[in-house]
């Protein structure tokens, strides 16, 4: 009788059933789509972050940059005889390996502290460096007294490659007749040769040669990003000079994400990096994976306690550093999408409740009669709640189908999102001001030195941009939650409607229609 | 047997207190057919609701046999209505979405009978009121007289001790009225149940063994 009565009522009130089910379906579909897209955006953020921080990294540890804590701008100092003079031209060339702009180095004893922390599964330290290559030619003016070549100091500024021509200076002595300079900057990561579970090399794929082995510790070997290798025409077995040290290329790697480049242009053993950069015992980042994803927050707290001066960031902290359309999508999903879902869900619940209560009011005589012939309040409440529950379930099922359809359409379209993640492995160089004119000679025959004008750094931390196709996953849990929401909505409406029906006194219910 | 002792029922409507029943004392023996008459607003329906355990008196006692109905909780009142009392209403009060047979089945609110047994008994009840062939019809597909027959079948299918009818012929034409009254009288005689009806129709009231007249909330034998 319960089911017969229930389905007869619902089929007889098709319009009301359709309105309640449609409202519920819309809300459920939105919940599924928003959650799936949120999952997709989160996965995309992880992909972007992995391209920088490596796969499996739950936490990164670095030190906060303060104005005084960073290394100075790369400086190239040329004394007299610092270049090679041929006729009126002097060629200048110098390279330096320094801590990456925007990073702060700290003692590598932090790694041992991290490894001892409860909940830490793997940890690896890296030293982020930048290789600065400065080269150029100056020309000496013919007129004037020939003096000794002066000394010049150039502070490279923001552009990775810059060319500037100075105006001839005037003076009584030999003057600066112009020049051409170039500046290249390359990112280099010193990585642990034994830790392969976490760190920058987990987001790369070996395409040629080999990666590091334990025996590479302290050796002058390089693993090179494929894009950089192509630019520099480097192959496995070639050598590459960094500063005064010659390295052998042992492997070529590519990014496992859709990014065309890996987190760094070149990788070398950590101890080698410390040695050639004159940063013995220093590291710039520790990558950590937790034993369980649920432990991340607790591990973060423990690490912050163990390393009070360090900046400990989880993936969710890092997600906020993702920029670009991915960031916009994330904001849209987390703000507009979530609120829209909540509002539509609340509206659907309200519609269901109002229609149910209105239905109960309209059926006052019906319920009064049923009470008069002996139906208990509980049975009437069950009947009303059952009807609402089925309406909610119909909406839930339709909503799940529509929601899945929506997610499938999104996945077919697969919109491309670009995300930029702040990386501490590369320092960017902005446009510098052209060199100033040379100071004139003083008559003592000394050529004025050239000084490159001081520009200002743009971003202190470089951004690695990655393009990711949005794939919205459909999780069973989301579907279960969506159906549960529909059930809750139906039960809520049924409970309120049933409560109202149970409050009808049979005598008054019958009298009200008499 | 029904026993009413000093039963008073008051209502508050728009800040006015209305006394529908005023210290009514009454005894109705088991198996008696009683007609209650009186002017509109005289308290007829209120008295029927007290007898039918649909409402409780403001003061006084209502006893069905030795059971004090006026002192029972709502759930117990529902038990009394489900097991001991059958109702017939002026407007038939059938569930419009259920067939005639299903409407009769609704009377088994608290029965431990199997669904098949309920169906069989309901079909037999419909047969007994002359609607054996109309069990799968919706109320809207039946005439007024047929709908009232379904309502009578619903009231009788659980074999109650008491049959209460509120203007059972009030919505019917004369011919149908007489058919329904013959049916009800036949049931009353055959089953030996107590039959109490409220009616404005004197020709219907004259069929009863006993006629009560209610006016101003007070009752007297007519």
Distance between the termini of chain A: 27 Å
The count of domains of chain B is 1
Average pLDDT metric of chain B: 91
Radius of gyration of chain B, Cα only, in angstroms?
A: 17 Å
- Level-1 CATH class name of chain B: Alpha Beta
Shape of chain A: elongated
User: What is the helix tally of chain B?
Assistant: 7
Biggest protein-protein contact in the assembly: A-B, 27 and 34 residues
Question: How many β-strand runs of chain A?
Answer: 19
The helix/strand class of chain B is: alpha/beta
Major beta sheet summary of chain B: 6 strands, mixed
In the predicted model, the low-confidence regions of chain A spanning at least 5 consecutive residues are 144-172, 423-462
Determine the fraction of residues in helical runs of chain B and give it as a percent range: 25-40%
Q: Which homologous superfamily in CATH is the superfamily of chain B?
A: P-loop containing nucleotide triphosphate hydrolases
Strand residue content of chain B: 25-35%
The shape of chain B is globular
Concise structural overview:
The complex is a heterodimer of chains A (514) and B (222). In chain A, 40% of the residues lie in helices and 25% in strands. Chain A is of the alpha+beta class and 514 residues long.
Notable characteristics:
heterodimer, A: 514 residues, alpha+beta, 12-stranded mixed sheet, 3-stranded antiparallel sheet, B: 222 residues, alpha/beta, Rossmann fold, 6-stranded mixed sheet, 4-stranded antiparallel sheet, 7 helices
Could you characterize the architecture of this molecule?
The complex is a heterodimer of chains A (514) and B (222). Chain A contains twelve helices and 19 strands. Chain A is α+β, with helices and mostly antiparallel strands and 514 residues long. Chain A has a domain at 2-46 and 326-419 and 469-511. In chain A, the strands form four sheets. In chain A, strands 1, 3, 4, 6, 8, 9, 10, 11, 12, 13, 15 and 16 form a twelve-stranded mixed β-sheet that branches. In chain A, strands 17-18-19 form a three-stranded antiparallel β-sheet, with helices on one face. In chain A, helix 1 crosses helix 10 (377-413) and helix 2 packs antiparallel against helix 11 (476-502). The longest helix of chain A is centred in the first third of the chain and has 40 residues, at 14-53. Mean pLDDT of chain A is 76; it is low at 144-172 and 423-462. With 222 residues, chain B is of the alpha/beta class. Chain B has a single domain (30-54, 74-221), classed as Rossmann fold (3-Layer(aba) Sandwich), CATH 3.40.50.300. Chain B contains seven helices and ten strands. In chain B, the strands form two sheets. In chain B, strands 6-7-8-3-9-10 form a six-stranded mixed β-sheet. Chain B is globular. The A-B interface holds A 1, 4-5, 8-9, 11-12, 365-366, 368-377, 379, 505-507, 510-511, 513-514 and B 45, 49, 52, 54-55, 74-75, 78-79, 81-83, 86-87, 89-91, 93, 95-98, 102, 105-110, 115, 118, 154-155, 158.
């Amino acid at each position: 009788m319960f089911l017969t009565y229930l389905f007869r009522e619902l089929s007889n009130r098709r319009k009301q059933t359709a309105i309640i089910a449609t409202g519920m379906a819309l809300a459920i579909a939105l919940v599924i789509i928003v959650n799936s897209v949120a999952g997709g955006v989160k996965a995309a953020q992880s992909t972007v972050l992995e391209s920088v921080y490596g796969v499996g990294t739950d936490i990164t540890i670095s030190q906060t940059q303060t104005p005084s804590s960073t290394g100075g701008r790369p400086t190239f100092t040329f004394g007299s005889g610092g270049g090679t003079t041929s006729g009126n031209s002097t060629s200048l060339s110098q390279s330096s390996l320094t801590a990456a702009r925007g990073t702060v180095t700290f003692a590598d004893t932090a790694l041992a502290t991290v490894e001892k922390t409860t909940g830490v599964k793997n940890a690896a330290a890296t030293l982020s460096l930048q290789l600065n290559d400065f080269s150029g030619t100056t020309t000496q003016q013919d007129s004037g007294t020939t003096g000794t070549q002066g000394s010049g100091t150039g502070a490279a500024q923001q552009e990775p490659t810059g060319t500037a021509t100075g105006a001839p200076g005037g003076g009584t002595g030999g003057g600066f007749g112009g020049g051409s300079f170039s500046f290249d900057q390359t990112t280099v990561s010193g990585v642990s040769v034994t830790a392969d579970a976490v760190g920058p090399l987990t987001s790369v794929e070996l395409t040629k040669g080999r990666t590091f082995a334990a025996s590479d510790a302290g050796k002058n070997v390089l693993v090179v990003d494929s894009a950089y290798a192509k630019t520099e025409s480097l192959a496995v077995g070639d050598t590459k000079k960094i500063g005064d040290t010659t390295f052998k290329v042992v492997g070529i790697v590519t990014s496992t994400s859709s990014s065309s480049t890996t987190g760094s242009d070149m990788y070398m053993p950590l101890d080698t990096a410390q040695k050639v950069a004159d940063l013995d015992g220093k590291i710039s980042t520790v990558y950590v994976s937790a034993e369980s994803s649920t432990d991340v927050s607790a591990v973060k707290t423990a690490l912050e306690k163990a390393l009070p001066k360090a900046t400990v960031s989880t993936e969710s902290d890092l997600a906020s550093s993702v920029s670009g359309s991915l960031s916009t999508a994330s904001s849209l999903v987390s703000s507009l999408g979530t609120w829209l879902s909540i509002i539509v869900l609340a509206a659907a619940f309200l519609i269901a409740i109002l229609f149910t209560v209105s239905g109960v009011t309209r059926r006052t005589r019906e319920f009064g009669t049923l009470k008069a012939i002996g139906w208990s309040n509980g049975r009437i409440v069950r009947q009303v709640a059952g009807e609402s529950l089925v309406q909610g379930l119909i909406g839930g099922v339709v909503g799940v189908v529509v929601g899945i359809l929506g997610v499938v359409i999104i996945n077919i379209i697969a919109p491309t999102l670009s995300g930029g993640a702040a990386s501490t492995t590369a320092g960017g160089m902005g446009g510098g001001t052209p060199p100033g004119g040379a100071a004139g000679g003083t008559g003592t025959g000394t050529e004025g030195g050239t000084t490159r004008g001081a520009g200002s750094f743009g971003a202190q931390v470089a951004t690695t941009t990655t393009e990711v196709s949005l794939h919205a996953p459909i999780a069973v849990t989301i579907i279960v939650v969506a159906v549960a929401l529909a059930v809750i909505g139906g039960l809520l409406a049924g409970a309120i409607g049933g409560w109202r029906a149970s409050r009808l006194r049979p005598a008054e219910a019958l009298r009200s229609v008499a | 047997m029904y026993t009413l002792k000093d039963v008073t029922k008051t209502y508050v409507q728009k800040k006015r207190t209305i006394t529908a029943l005023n210290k009514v004392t009454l005894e109705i023996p088991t198996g008696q057919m009683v007609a209650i008459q009186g002017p509109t607003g005289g308290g007829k329906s209120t008295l029927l609701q007290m007898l039918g355990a649909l409402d409780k008196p403001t003061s006084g006692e209502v006893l069905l046999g030795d059971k004090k109905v006026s002192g029972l909780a709502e759930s117990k009142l529902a038990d009394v209505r489900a097991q001991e009392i059958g109702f017939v209403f002026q407007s038939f009060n059938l569930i419009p979405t259920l067939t005639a047979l299903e409407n009769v089945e609704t009377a088994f609110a608290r029965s431990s009978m199997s669904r098949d047994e309920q169906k069989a008994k309901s079909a037999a009840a419909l047969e007994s009121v002359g609607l054996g062939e109309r069990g799968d019809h919706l109320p809207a597909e039946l005439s007024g007289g047929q709908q009232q027959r379904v309502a009578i079948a619903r009231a009788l299918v659980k074999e109650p001790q008491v049959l209460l009818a509120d203007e059972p012929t009030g919505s019917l034409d004369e011919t149908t009225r007489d058919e329904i009254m013959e049916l009800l009288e036949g049931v009353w005689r055959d089953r030996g149940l107590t039959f109490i009806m409220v009616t404005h129709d004197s020709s219907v009231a004259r069929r009863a063994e006993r006629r009560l007249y209610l006016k101003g909330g007070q009752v007297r034998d007519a």
